[in-house]
Inverse folding.
């Protein structure tokens, strides 16, 4: 949902209400002319917030004023439900779309609302609980594209495939932020006409932004003074924004001198890309009837915890150890990057989420008690990832679900409950491994890999899969990290042409370091007056006079290693 208010562009001249009325009339004519110009379908982005409501209301009123014979082109209204939206806002938007569909049919208007959702394999909980991704951060913003961009882009692409082109109508405004204003200004140079910009992400589509020059106050004036044409209450929207403001104040906007509403942002209740969820916190603070959402706020704070290294694997999802340089006061430390959440942590997140869902279903108002924080389809995909990709054949998800909800887990995936390996076999394996976590993981991977290939008609690739199990799970955490440091040091020596350091590190390789030897076996490091070759896992130094070899650069000589 859009921002309640961001800093205005101070340099922009303030318009009077009369100026705004004149602009609305001009925009109405512009929208009508653009709509009737061709057969290109429109897609209006609607979040339920003030900006998108304003744009949709402008378009609706303009099209409603056309003669019936000219309202021939479909206008798709799309809303993306990320499945982790603020529950109050999500309910508001769903009800708005229902009302919109009903009124469009009653008024014989070409508006067609669609509620979009991310693919169940790309949802927030499948990423965090299933794959073990940590909560999103600025440098690892894995959620936005999956939850918001992909669903809307898929829909628009389908429209483009059917019609060849599309015009995407958005409520973007320059006054939202300096960054937004700068981006919009750059696109202005590529415009085909006023307020029609190329869509850089989707070929054969244009972005139409009717209110790009409006200020926040002007948006509220329009919403409060012009009646909502699909029969929804803009005053309720105003109240929702007021409730999401820390001071619970949102002055009635009567002219452009009146301060506008709030400074909060509606969005995903799990969002850790902001320091705190001000809107959700303000809603709970300002209204006793919304205190039932407090568990959501508490859960989000746990997700936002800075230090989660003890809950995360020392390897990345591909099984490798990745190092990075960490700046400290006394110098630079080379450390490993924490990977996905470990098994116990992922199970704990699921248990806590189901507990919160159960709790708020008991305490929420009657009309919100069917709230779903995680769907059966999501849990089915999480279960599949744990079983097939993580090889955790103890199959803990149905057990956790029953423990928390008291109900049996009904997996919608066909054949999901059939397995030769289960909790009993896992318990035996744990006993055999005697607390050795890496040994348990390796044995589980080997057994489950064999089981998965047993079900296939052809077993092609089984040896590669078994080898991968050893590559990723045969070393302890300390050995794996030391191994990564050794690989880094060797590469650094090769890059720097440091033959002494290279010899020293190469001697540390063992029979188990086959992967490193394969990487450096054919590497030839050339420094002035000296060529170094590796043969039979031994490194030797030969002078150019002995081999009649002219010294060459590293870039030219490295590809000749196979000739030695």
């Amino acid at each position: 949902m859009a921002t309640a208010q961001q800093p205005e562009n101070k340099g922009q001249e303030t318009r009077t209400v009369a100026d705004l009325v004149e602009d609305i009339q001009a925009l109405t004519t512009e929208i009508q002319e653009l709509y009737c110009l061709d057969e290109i379908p429109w897609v209006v982005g609607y979040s339920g917030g003030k900006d998108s409501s304003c744009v949709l209301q402008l378009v609706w009123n303009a099209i409603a004023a056309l003669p019936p014979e000219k309202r021939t082109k479909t206008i798709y209204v799309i809303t993306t439900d990320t499945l982790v939206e603020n529950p109050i806002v999500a309910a508001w938007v769903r009800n708005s779309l229902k009302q919109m569909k009903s009124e469009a049919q009653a008024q014989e208007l070409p508006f067609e609302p669609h509620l979009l959702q991310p693919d169940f394999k790309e949802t927030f909980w499948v990423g965090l609980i299933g794959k073990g991704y940590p909560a999103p951060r600025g440098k690892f913003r894995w959620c936005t594209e999956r939850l918001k961009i992909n669903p809307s882009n898929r829909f628009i692409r389908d429209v483009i495939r059917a019609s060849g082109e599309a015009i995407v109508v958005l409520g973007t405004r320059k006054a939202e932020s300096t960054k937004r204003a700068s981006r919009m200004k750059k696109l202005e140079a590529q415009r085909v006409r006023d307020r029609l910009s190329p869509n850089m992400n989707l070929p054969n589509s244009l972005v139409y932004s009717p209110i790009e020059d409006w200020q926040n106050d002007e948006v509220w004036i329009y919403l409060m003074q012009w009646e909502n044409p699909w029969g929804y209450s803009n005053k309720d929207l105003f109240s929702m924004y007021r409730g999401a403001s820390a001071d619970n104040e949102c002055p009635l906007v009567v002219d452009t001198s009146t301060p506008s509403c709030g400074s909060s942002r509606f969005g995903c209740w799990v969002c850790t890309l902001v320091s705190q969820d001000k809107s959700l916190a303000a809603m709970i603070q300002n209204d006793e009837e919304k205190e039932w959402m407090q568990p959501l706020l508490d859960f989000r704070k746990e997700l936002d915890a800075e230090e989660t290294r003890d809950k995360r694997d020392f390897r990345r999802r591909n099984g490798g150890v990745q190092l990075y340089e960490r700046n400290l006061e006394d110098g630079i430390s080379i450390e490993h990057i924490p990977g996905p959440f470990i098994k116990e942590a992922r199970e704990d997140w699921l248990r806590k989420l189901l507990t919160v869902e159960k709790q708020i279903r008991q305490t929420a108002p009657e009309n919100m008690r069917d709230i779903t924080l995680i769907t059966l389809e999501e849990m089915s995909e999480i279960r599949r990832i744990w079983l097939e990709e993580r090889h955790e054949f103890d199959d803990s998800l149905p057990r956790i679900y029953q423990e928390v909800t008291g109900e049996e887990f009904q997996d919608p995936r066909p054949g999901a409950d059939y397995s030769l390996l289960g909790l009993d076999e896992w318990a035996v394996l744990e006993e055999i491994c005697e607390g050795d976590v890496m040994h348990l993981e390796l044995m589980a991977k080997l057994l489950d890999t064999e089981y998965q290939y047993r079900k296939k008609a052809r077993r092609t690739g089984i040896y590669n899969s078994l080898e991968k199990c050893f590559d990723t799970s045969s070393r302890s955490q300390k050995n794996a990290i030391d191994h990564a440091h050794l690989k880094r040091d060797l590469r650094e020596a090769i890059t720097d042409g440091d033959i002494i350091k290279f010899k020293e590190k190469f001697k540390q390789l063992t029979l188990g370091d086959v992967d490193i030897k394969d990487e450096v076996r054919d590497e030839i490091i050339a420094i002035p007056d000296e060529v170094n070759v590796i043969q039979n896992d031994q490194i030797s130094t030969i002078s150019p006079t002995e081999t009649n070899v002219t010294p060459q650069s590293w870039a030219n000589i490295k590809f000749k290693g196979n000739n030695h």
